[in-house]
What we know:
Radius of gyration: 12 Å
CATH topology: Alpha-Beta Plaits
CATH class: Alpha Beta
Number of strands: 4
Strand content: 25-35%
Structural class: alpha+beta
Shape: globular
Number of domains: 1
CATH superfamily: ORF SCO4226, nickel-binding ferredoxin-like monomer
CATH architecture: 2-Layer Sandwich
Strand order of the largest sheet: 2-3-1-4
Order of helices and strands: EHEEHE
Number of helices: 2
Amino acid sequence: MEWVVVERTFPDEVTPDLVREMAESAGGCLELxxxxxxxxxxxxxxxxxxxxxRAPDAESVRTALRNSGSSPTSVWPSTLHTP
Length: 83
């Protein structure tokens, strides 16, 4: 499994409750493509969000999010470096 980072932008402010709703509605698609949500960070202006996933590859994350009705701005495969 790879670490994948997703950047998302929104035209209007997003509330934490809406973020939870989006995560719940995408659950089936994420499960189908073996994508696990790890953490999400919402910007102070609430118009940008960074999400971290574990998945077989970045394309699995792109496909799962698009099929769930979400449109990620950018998707990057990444690595985790620890001391």
